[in-house]
Design a protein that fits this description.
two-stranded antiparallel ribbon, 9 helices, 5-stranded mixed sheet, alpha+beta, Heat Shock Protein 90, single chain
C-alpha cells in the first residue's frame, strides 16, 4: 500500500485519556492491516484508539474498495485484505467501548451522562411541539401523506424524549416522587392527557386507544408519577401492537383502592424476556458487553415509581390475548373542585 502524504500528519488522540504523539506508519490503521494479514492476530497501537483513528480506517477501506482492479485474481486478494480491516475495526471498537465506559464510571461519569441527556431533551421537546402543531393544521393545510409523516416524526421524537427522561431518572435512582405530599387529582384528566399525547402514534398505526376511568373520579395521590407510569406503559403497548387496540382502565377496589391497567392486543412478550423484564440492561448473548433490553428502560422506571407509590407492577401476557400491565394503589376519594 502506497503511503499518502495526507496520512503522514500526526493523529491526535483523546488528550483526557492519553498523551498526544504522532502515529508511526506501523502503528496507524494501515500498518495494523498489513500486520493482520500474515498472522491474523496482531495488536493495534493505543494511539490508534481515537475517533480520528477509526475514521482513517474507514477511509482506507473505502479507498481500497474503490481503486481495486475488477479482475478475478485481484478479487481473491481483496477478500483477505477486507477481512484484516474488519479485525482491526473490531479491535478498535472494543477498545473504544472500554475507554468510554471507564470515563462514565469515573467520578464525573454521572454528571456527564445527565448533561448529555439534558441537552437532548430540549430539541426533542421542540420537535414534538412543532410536529403536533403542523399535524393539526395550525400552521396551514397539510395533505394526508404529510400528516402521516408528521405522525412518524412525532412518534420517534416522543420515544427518544421518554428514553432521555428515563435515563435521567435512572441515573438519579429512579424511585423519587416529584410530589412530596399526596394531592387531589382527576383520574379522567390523566387518562385524557395520556391519550392526547399518544394519539399521533395510534393514528399512524391505525390503532384504537380507549380509556375507562373509575366511577369516583377525584382521588388523593401522586398524579405526576401516575401519569408518567401510564404514559410509559401506553407508549410501550402501542410500540408492540400492530393491529387492534390499547386500553387504559381504572377499576375500583373497595374500600379506597384503584387498580390501573394498560392492556393491548399485541403479540405478547416472549417468555425469555420475562425473567429480566424490569432490568434496564442485559448482557449480550455470547458477548462481553451490555445492551438496552428489548423492553427498554421505561419498564424499569415504571416499576420504581409504582413501588415508590406503595405498590408493585405486574404483567399478564400471551400470544393469543396480548399483554396487560397492572398495579393497585391506595387512593382515597377526594371532593370534586
Amino acid at each position: 500500500m502506497q503511503k499518502d502524504s495526507a496520512l503522514s500528519t500526526p493523529v491526535e488522540s483523546d488528550t483526557t485519556l492519553r498523551p498526544q504523539r504522532p502515529l508511526r506508519w506501523k502503528d496507524r490503521p494501515e500498518g495494523a492491516i498489513q500486520r493482520e494479514q500474515p498472522s491474523g492476530t496482531a495488536p493495534v497501537d493505543d494511539a490508534t484508539h481515537s475517533m480520528l483513528g477509526r475514521r482513517l480506517l474507514e477511509l482506507v477501506r473505502a479507498e481500497i474498495v474503490r481503486a481495486w482492479p475488477a479482475t478475478p485474481e485481484a478479487e481473491e486478494q481483496l477478500l483477505p485484505l477486507l477481512a484484516s480491516i474488519e479485525r482491526v475495526r473490531e479491535t478498535l471498537e472494543s477498545q473504544w467501548e472500554q475507554d468510554f465506559g471507564s470515563r462514565l464510571s469515573g467520578s464525573d461519569g454521572l454528571d456527564l451522562l445527565i448533561g448529555v441527556v439534558h441537552d437532548l431533551r430540549s430539541p426533542l421537546t421542540s420537535i414534538l411541539f412543532l410536529a403536533e402543531t403542523l399535524q393539526r393544521g395550525q400552521s396551514g393545510d397539510v395533505n394526508e401523506m404529510q400528516r402521516r409523516q408528521l405522525g412518524l416524526i412525532y412518534g420517534a421524537a416522543l420515544g427518544l424524549s421518554a428514553i432521555a427522561s428515563d435515563v435521567i431518572e435512572l441515573a438519579r435512582g429512579g424511585d423519587s416522587l416529584m410530589e412530596q405530599q399526596p394531592a387531589p387529582f382527576s383520574v379522567r384528566e390523566i387518562f385524557e392527557s395520556v391519550c392526547d399525547i399518544v394519539r399521533p402514534i395510534a393514528e399512524e398505526k391505525h390503532l384504537v386507544v380507549c380509556h375507562r376511568p373509575p366511577v369516583t373520579d377525584y382521588r388523593i395521590g401522586h398524579p405526576l408519577a401516575l401519569s408518567r407510569v401510564l404514559l410509559n406503559l401506553t407508549t410501550n403497548a402501542l410500540k408492540f401492537t400492530d393491529t387492534g387496540f390499547v386500553e387504559i382502565v381504572a377499576r375500583e377496589t373497595p374500600p379506597s383502592g384503584v387498580e390501573f391497567s394498560v392492556r393491548d392486543s399485541g403479540r405478547g412478550i416472549a417468555p425469555e424476556l420475562l425473567d429480566h423484564l424490569y432490568q434496564p440492561f442485559r448482557r449480550v448473548s455470547g458477548g462481553c458487553g451490555y445492551s438496552i433490553s428489548k423492553a427498554g428502560i421505561g419498564l424499569t422506571m415504571c416499576q420504581k415509581l409504582v413501588r415508590a407509590m406503595g405498590s408493585e407492577l405486574h404483567v399478564e401476557t400471551s400470544p393469543e390475548s396480548g399483554t396487560r400491565f397492572f398495579f393497585e394503589l391506595h387512593l382515597p376519594a377526594a371532593s370534586a373542585p
